[in-house]
Every structure is written in C-alpha cells, then in structure tokens.
Amino acid sequence: QVQLVESGGGSVQAGGSLRLSCAVSGSTFSINTMGWFRQAPGKQRELVAVISRGRSTNYADSVKGRFTISRDSAKNTVYLQMHSLKPEDTAVYYCHAKNRWTLHDYWGQGTQVTVSS
What we know:
This protein has strands spanning 2-7, 10-13, 18-26, 31-39, 46-51, 57-59, 67-72, 77-82, 91-99, 105-107, 111-116. By secondary structure, it is mainly beta.
C-alpha cells in the first residue's frame, strides 16, 4: 500500500508564492514517477508537473518557468514550489504516484490553492 498526503495549500495574492508538500508512506520502493495534478471548478483534471526516480522533470506549458517540482528521497517527500501565482492557478492540487511494476495510480486527497487578484 502507498499513501499520499498533501499539505501547504492556502490563499495567496497574485504574484505570491506557495510550496506544496506530498508525504509518501507505505511501499515507497514500488513508486516510479510522482507528480502534481490540479482541477479547477468546471474543468478536467490536468497535469502540472512530474518527476522520475532519476530526477528528470516535465511541466505543463502554463506553469513552466514559474513552478518547480523536486523530491527528497530521505524524507519520502515530493514538493511543488510555486512562484508568480496567477488567479488561473486556483484549483485543488493532487499529489500522484505510479507503481513501477503494476502501473497502478495512487492519489492524495487534494489541497486547495486559491490565488486572488
């Protein structure tokens, strides 16, 4: 079993910063890639950023240059550092992990990020 717990969400003014954290517990050796998704009201869930075991990263075009994904293996934690936040970044952000052997998807409960103008 793998459990993901997000934290660090909140309200911030446009141009501000937040750092989201995702703590991983359970069978962490089974995890291949991890990432962050978000879902705004009335919209589909979309990929924000992903990071592999080898630390390679990919970002959505809408956040590239503003967001940074990283992971701390010793702490079993993945982070999303968000700068220059915009109102359109407002969404529930979900931590995601994929089992490297079964390709099963694991999801956190989500954390709300609200950016005001």
